[in-house]
Amino acid sequence: MARKPFLHVVVCAAGVAADVSKLITCAQERDWEVGVVATPAAMNGFFDTAAVETLTGRPIRSAWRTPGEPSPFPAPDAVVVAPATFNTVNKWAAGIADTLALGTLCEAAGLGVPIAVLPCVAGALAAHPAYRDSLTRLRGMGVRFGDPYAGGAEPDGGRPDFGWERALDLLRRD
Ligand SMILES: Cc1cc2nc3c(=O)[nH]c(=O)nc-3n(C[C@H](O)[C@H](O)[C@H](O)COP(=O)(O)O)c2cc1C
Hints:
By secondary structure, the chain is of the alpha/beta class. It has helices at residues 20-29, 49-56, 86-93, 100-111, 123-126, 129-140, 165-172, and strands at 6-11, 33-38, 78-84, 115-119, 144-145. This is Flavoprotein.
């Protein structure tokens, strides 16, 4: 039987990461096999790691493997970064690979696989010129971005829907 395409989901330390299971479920419904790579900061209480491991049937990767250890994930057929933080977007664009999540992102474009990003960055941070430059640089590498999402509360106290499925729609875009 042909294997399902493998999707790397990179999770950063933004509050909305608490709902990342929605993205995983949506991807699985669209016939992706999913492995999660989280930043070390995201592993620090931003989402339910046990629930995500149960859902994907695989350990979450966050630390580098040791030299003799085989890679626990197949090579990606596509990569999604959701939520993407200000910090990770800027480090990725600068070519910094000091975490497994950043290393995964830095090599993804070179692998030629589609990459979709859903940023969650407050307006004040998004106004920083370094962030604007990072978006320009990553777009120039073929990375696909969802519309800006600031994550702020609405007048009724709720938050706008993050729209996790947007990431999967971006992967399908020609
Ligand atoms: C509760 C909480 C929510 C946060 N939400 C965001 C966010 O939505 N977007 C963002 O860019 N940073 C957010 N941050 C700050 C990041 O966690 C911080 O910049 C961190 O260094 C990001 O690390 P990472 O990019 O490696 O995941 C938040 C921090 C906390 C404590």
